[in-house]
Amino acid sequence: MKITRTRSLPVGRVAALATVGILLAGALAACSGSTPTASSSANADQIAAALQQKSTITYWSWTPQAKDQVAAFEAQYPNVTVNLVNAGTGNDEYTKLQNAIKAGSGAPDVAQIEYYAMPQFELSKSLTDLSSYGFSSLQSSYSPSTWTAVTGGSAIYALPQDSGPMALFYNKAIFDQYGLTVPTTWDEYIADAAKLHAADPTKYITNDAGDAGLTTSLIWQAGGKPYVSSGNSVTVNLQDAGSKKYADMWNQLVEPGLVSSTPSWSDAWWKSLSDGSIASLVTGAWMPGNLETGALGSAGNWRVAPLPTYDGTAATAQNGGGGQAVLAQSKNQLVAAGFLQWLNSGPGVSVFLKGGGFPSTTAQLNDPTFLADAPTYFGGQLINKVLLDASNSVVPGWQYLPFQTYANSVFSDTVGQSYANKSDLNKGLAAWQESSVSYGAQQGFAVNK
Amino acid sequence: MSSLQLSSPPVMRRTKRQWTGWMFVLPFLLVFALVLVAPVIYAVYLSLFRDQLVGGNAFVGFANYVEALTDPNFWDSLGRVVLFLVVQVPIMLLIALAAALALDSARLHAASFFRIAIFLPYAVPAVVAVLMWGFIYGTQFGLVGSFDKFFGIAFDPLAPNVVLAAIGNINTWEFTGYNMLLFYAALRVISGDLYEAAELDGARAFQVIRSIKLPALRPAIVIAVIFSIIGSFQLFNEPNILKSLAPNSISTFFTPNMYAYNLSFAGQQYNYSATIAIIMGVLTAVIAYIVQLRGSRKEL
After folding, report:
1. Is residue A385 part of a domain?
2. Residue-wise pLDDT tens digits, B268-282
């Protein structure tokens, strides 16, 4: 799923998609030209000086906190004007970004990009390598998995903004009512699922209509490394030990129909979360704010627990989350870099937190006031402590494909068919691998060679 | 407009050329060239190249066309819209025809109310209509959900094997009124003399329909069929919007247009996408032309 931290508005998204409209050759006319590459290098003093000059930059983001952040930035640097544009959520924005990059102009100076989509933009050399601005020294201030997600070798392509270590969000009222124990292992989770659905066939432990982001994250948690890429060489193996381990476990939920097939972020989904017919969610740490605004009917009932594991020892993965990058096309690299640093490593972070974001910076993650937050929606539970533990137990070494956005787009054609037929996910994963391999080969990668 | 200079004998003095006519069509020609001819030429140009993430752009001749014609996804999507065409279009046109004849029969009370009521769905923007139907089709909180609960069944209109019929239902609802209006307009221009003559000859209502109204409707039917063929081949909005409600029932290559769209915007395969678009454009034009030739002959 492409939405991470904001509550999605299906109507708006769909309408936006529809206005993009049917493929017109005319729309393609804008897609030619080449991408300029940046080769400047500068230090902190030059950035600071540039921020005092009169200038204007454009920033694409769909985070709900962006507006306040931009206002705070402009207050601090009155000479810099930041044009904030919401160019769509997730894939909608990447499509526009990709088109602007192809066209050779029209891209923003700074853009929000989720971690899974970053390799695609790195590969086309569309992002400025921030190591030339001395950003390498910022490494220690970010959680390791988010830093890995924005870097490639010595190059730094973005600064992390938020992160989504996965946890189990569950409806305590439903769990109590049906005598379910909060699971620590997946076996217990499956047992809960069966018990709940047997007791009331309209209730499900969770929903999963087939979601590429969830699947890759759960494979990540199971220790799978289905994607390995370096340069133009890519390996795809969605039947490695970890992927199989995940599929064999999740099959026990999908095949007997123990998970609801309601698609996430749909209207029916919000209603099900509100009335308790979906009793838990396996999702990222950015979820609390969404629940608080989207599932009002079950306020006070939700709790957060560590993600169930295979053997009971803590292990989790990232789900969603992203950062901001400076586009190579930007004509105002210094100001853009300065804005980015302010946004994700300077005062911008606290504005982000105030807006309910889940940070990627270790200082904020460990800040006592952050950890003392006890929202009434979660019955006064210190949820950030649970989420911080999750952040610290992310399995290291995960990589996405350099064309993950494409791979995710054909997930429903392949793995989705296993969901539709309630059949073995391994078969779907094999088909997904096949699609990814043939696309990769067509795009000139050396795949599985 | 080089064709103008083709026939100009150099020696003979000719009457002065009349440019007035050209001046009148010039604004149209400019716009036509800009928004139709140029993009098509550009799409053809694009379809001859292949731009890869690794390796860049290269001329590949007709390789994209060869690939498209052997691409099971493309044939799958084409087969689906053809099935849609041969099932949904006749149903929709028959309903529209029946409605138009009923309105024209002058035996209906509140005819203008029915006319506007049948036409109204066409005035609802397609996106809104599909969202609305999406809610109706919901098995949990929608109308279908209540229906299922009442009868104790588990019918899901968005399940993979029936989703095409569900889309056909939306399209029929949307476009019956439009076609009805086409037919109704054609019926209204039939001269009253014919009806009087028929009455004098003692023709019954069904004879009037068969011998007067249907022949008079022929051009309108041909037009409606051609529009419907084009509409079916361009099916996009309905499946693309319903996809978010039923991601596993509607593939990324559900219809040729969706396939082209996803190739272009999810896979950045602009060249291949342009190829699919060109092939579909040619196919649609050919089929529409055949229907027109066939329809303008004396007997159908």
Report:
1. no
2. 899 999 999 999 999
**Measured between beta carbons, which residues in chain A are less than 8 angstroms from residue B237?**
18, 22
Model confidence band, residue A202 (pLDDT cutoffs 50, 70, 90): very high
User: Is residue A233 within 8 Å of B211, Cβ to Cβ?
Assistant: no
Contact A381, A374 (CB under 8 A): yes
Same domain, A406 and A328: no
Q: Does the pLDDT value for residue A347 go beyond 90?
A: yes
Count of domains in chain B? 1
The verdict on residue B272 lying in a domain is yes
| Mean residue pLDDT across chain A | 88
Position B217 in a domain: yes
Confidence class of residue A23 from pLDDT cuts 50, 70 and 90? very low
The confidence band for B262, taking pLDDT boundaries of 50, 70 and 90, is: very high
Number of domains chain A contains:
2
Is B24 within a domain? Answer: no
Nearest residue of chain A to residue B46 (CA atoms)? A28
Q: Please report residues of B whose CB lies closer than 8 A to that of A93.
A: none
**ipTM of the predicted structure?**
0.82
A263 and A123 belong to one structural domain: no
Residue B165: which domain range? 69-295
Q: Which CATH number is A243's domain given?
A: 3.40.190.10
Whether residue A298 is contained in a domain is answered as yes
* C-beta contacts of A41-47 below 8 A and 24+ residues apart: A41/A132, A41/A133, A42/A132, A42/A133, A42/A333, A42/A334, A42/A337, A43/A133, A43/A134, A44/A133, A44/A134, A46/A334, A47/A133, A47/A334, A47/A337, A47/A338, A47/A341
Contact yes or no for B41/A391 (Cβ under 8 A): no
> How confident is the model at residue B298, as a pLDDT?
56
Per-residue pLDDT tens for B73-112? 999 999 999 999 999 999 999 999 999 999 998 888 888 9
* Nearest CA distance, B182 vs chain A (angstrom): 25
State whether A132 and A204 are in the same domain: no
pLDDT category, A26, cuts 50, 70, 90?
Answer: very low
Burial class of B287 by CB neighbour count within 10 A (0 to 12, 13 to 18, 19+): middle
Q: Is pLDDT above 70 for A306?
A: yes
Residue with token string 């066409």: B122
Same-domain check for residues A140 and A189:
no
Residue B9 has pLDDT above 70, yes or no: no
- CB of A161 within 8 A of CB of A342? no
Residue of A1, A17, A23, A24 to mutate when probing chain B, most B C-beta within 10 A: A23
**pLDDT by residue (tens digit) across A371-383?**
998 999 999 999 9
Residue B103: give its domain's CATH number. Answer: 1.10.3720.10
pLDDT of B296 > 80? The answer is no
Rounded Cα distance between B176 and B112, Å, is 16
Nearest 5 degrees, angle CA B92-CA B97-CA B102? 130
Q: Is residue A279 in a domain?
A: yes
A234 lies in which domain range? 166-317+395-447
**Residue in chain B lying closest to A121 (CA):** B53
Is residue A389 one of the residues assigned to a domain? no
A113 & A171 share domain: no
Which residues, in sequence order, are CB contacts of A126 under 8 Å at separation 6+? A35, A97, A101, A107, A327, A328, A329
- The verdict on A123 and A179 lying in the same domain is no
